[in-house]
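Troubleshooting log. The previous run stalled partway through. Resubmitting the same four chains, unchanged.
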Amino acid sequence: MIIFIQCTDQVGLVAAISRSLARGGFNIISLQEHVDNTENLFFIRLEVDKNTDTESLATDLEKILPTGALIKINPRPLKKIVVLVTKEYHCLADILVRNYFKTLGAEVQCVIGNHTTLQNICERFDIPFHLIETTGDAAASEQSVVEIIDGYDFDYLVLAKFMRILSPNFVGRYPMRIINIHHSFLPAFAGASPYRQAYERGVKLIGATAHYVTNELDEGPIIAQQITPAGHSLTVKDMVKAGKEVETAVLAKALKLVFEDRVFVYKNKTVVLE
Amino acid sequence: MIIFIQCTDQVGLVAAISRSLARGGFNIISLQEHVDNTENLFFIRLEVDKNTDTESLATDLEKILPTGALIKINPRPLKKIVVLVTKEYHCLADILVRNYFKTLGAEVQCVIGNHTTLQNICERFDIPFHLIETTGDAAASEQSVVEIIDGYDFDYLVLAKFMRILSPNFVGRYPMRIINIHHSFLPAFAGASPYRQAYERGVKLIGATAHYVTNELDEGPIIAQQITPAGHSLTVKDMVKAGKEVETAVLAKALKLVFEDRVFVYKNKTVVLE
Amino acid sequence: MIIFIQCTDQVGLVAAISRSLARGGFNIISLQEHVDNTENLFFIRLEVDKNTDTESLATDLEKILPTGALIKINPRPLKKIVVLVTKEYHCLADILVRNYFKTLGAEVQCVIGNHTTLQNICERFDIPFHLIETTGDAAASEQSVVEIIDGYDFDYLVLAKFMRILSPNFVGRYPMRIINIHHSFLPAFAGASPYRQAYERGVKLIGATAHYVTNELDEGPIIAQQITPAGHSLTVKDMVKAGKEVETAVLAKALKLVFEDRVFVYKNKTVVLE
Amino acid sequence: MIIFIQCTDQVGLVAAISRSLARGGFNIISLQEHVDNTENLFFIRLEVDKNTDTESLATDLEKILPTGALIKINPRPLKKIVVLVTKEYHCLADILVRNYFKTLGAEVQCVIGNHTTLQNICERFDIPFHLIETTGDAAASEQSVVEIIDGYDFDYLVLAKFMRILSPNFVGRYPMRIINIHHSFLPAFAGASPYRQAYERGVKLIGATAHYVTNELDEGPIIAQQITPAGHSLTVKDMVKAGKEVETAVLAKALKLVFEDRVFVYKNKTVVLE
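Second attempt completed without errors. Output:
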């Protein structure tokens, strides 16, 4: 069972928490903690050996922890997700394959696309695919996404190369539950056509960034980033191709971290306890 | 001997150039070429086995190459450089050590600093150190740099963590001859305090960029870039420390490429023929 | 059209080859060459702009090149492959997905497995799956592989985590046409259970190696290698998991290089002209 | 103050230790722990906010920890080291520079060399250099090393490209106190001429390994490893050059970890708590 605590830092927190666990008969299998001294915040992720008596543990922890502590005990081990896509297959296919072989750490509930391009691959894996219209106004099209996903129980929305900007209204419905893969090494090349921007700037490395979606475009808390070399011999097209490999890898890594409940969010940043 | 050609692309350039070399009795040891199809530009770097008869080769090449071709034959193999510094030692010390053991590919003529911090290390390696005043106005201080370096024969000015912005007037005197190391993965975090910016943005990788200096701050052609992981556990200070290792490595790599005449510049980009 | 030449090195080869191309009306789009001075061997890969008159070009090149030159003109652009698997899905699924979206650079003719585990994923992608018996002797089982693949036209056999050792007799039938992915950074940890070996040795990085199969186990010419960090916190199981990501990436990269005719083999090594 | 504990794993160790610290008035600033489930071993590194009352803390910890626990409280923060070299400068110069600018985390007491090549650079940094004779037998030469270092107070011997094999007798005198940099990605290419071995095997990556020296040549516990790309275009000489950059970086990283008391050794492996 996973326990996850974020609170104001204080003297003796580890002692207090571990005593509380011992009282409840929980043995610590692994423990990662982090203190942000600037913000005076304490973060801890614990893996313990039993998953019963969680209510009395919660009550006990609430007593000993500072006011306002965020305590998460035993989050759902196998997450449920909805995936949004446009036309590019690489991230979606990677998710579908891991889902099919049960190594994703989550179950794909359905895929929503604004083109039919990826419908067939979903059907091959028996995953429901919902096509949304994009001919009308953006609000109407977002509304149809909301209607579809409201029919599902899910923990996270994964934007696997969904090439539309979501409205503040939509984002506000799912705070820190929407994960995006952006095809640049943010904050470099936010917005449209990052590979073209990278090509024109003549960078020697290109990258990808997985982040939570907030109302500031490409400005949400970063979960994972990676890069790949990009010399002068790469055209924009070549960069797009090379970039896809990094995008797939970075999104896979970020999802793994999120699904294993290793990611805390605060101040538009993440703490990743591995 | 190195030969270096940049010109409009045309059919048959490799054939024409290699025929011209054969006529002159030059045998090709190695050859790297690149064509930028968007700009219709051709770049070639050749290593040949003799370094005589360069004038007749130049005449011959000029005849067969398109008008406006840039031809560089037998550039000075061991470059001469002047290094500008402020207080941080890491890049300078790396340059001084390689210079001392004759593995830099260049000879350090002198070091110019706007603080005395690095005077002693220069003296230990018998390299002249010139202190420039920074109390007066920037123009006066730049003028004193010009006066010092005018006393030296040099190919490149290396800004090894020189923390001042050079004026267009100064930069214009040495076009594509000033090399800077910037402590971020450009174009992310241009300007001041890139590590603080990186810390505040919560990035998961930090980097460094070696580039030619132009009049646009941190916007010149990029020669080399590299990154290092930067998780949540790093404070700004830790990032500065980790960053220094990358800065040293990236500047060393860029200098090697430049000193070996492997870097072409065009359209605010570089072609690096390795 | 691709042209690919390997021969004894001589003065004037580039000039002679480019003249021959010019005579035939072929314009060079890109050119990569390499000289191994120790072995006195010359390698060149050219991309030219027309794919007719290949026979007269071949005749012309034979005349000007040293005796024994290996000349390959216009190899089949879209390769055909047969994939051999056991139970692990990651490399196979990556190949099937790229094949399905036509980004593999090859067409998968069929998959041969010695377990039924991966039959279903093949069927989902409409790729024939052949199950071979492994209960009898190894020779019989290999013979059944031969019988199956003899029914297909193919350029390469890809061992995508095929966990059996092939006999010299089998390997001899397809020289430099069998590509394997080995789950270690060769030559470290050849043979069985490389991740267990890596765990026991306490290495800080683990890797994967794609190579041509020869009669020496895990000793064939290496095409591509990559690594991933592996700290003390990884169990053998964790290493296996982390390793799968690298294996998939390395095999994908090696196949791309091979399918684009960028890999020369000599002296149990490869020259990769990118 | 650093506290460092290695013992048999038991239920409630973190609680017991943190309680003991709270009793003594020590507040935890940072904590990293690791459990090796296979060996049933527990490792913890703590940074606490005061460095007095260490004796009563030791007594208290001994009471609550399993028999045989290894407890290290407040190890010397600034280590003292002796460096052994042969002719290559890169690792030594890096150490001398960091030592000079007080960023090494240790103080270089002296350098011992079996050639005069590096004497001058030591003198430039005012570090005593001792030349040992290597003309006689190996035992005599080792004996002279022992005599020199016996004159110094030191925590670690650093072999910064010391190209001689030390006898079991010598190694036995300084258990887990001798750190070596080996110029390959161990266990690949142990022994002599690793770059030549790498060249001949045709690997696509080369590396370096920092490890504790034991009586098995190049078989001691690994502290850090890193790699760099090595394509077909590199000669053995080029590999040696490229390798030096990695060797310098890997040794610097390993020394940092060791000097900050982050490295535990058990079963010929290390646990590195960062």
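Takeaways: The mean pLDDT of chain C is 95. Chain C has two domains: 2-73, 79-272.
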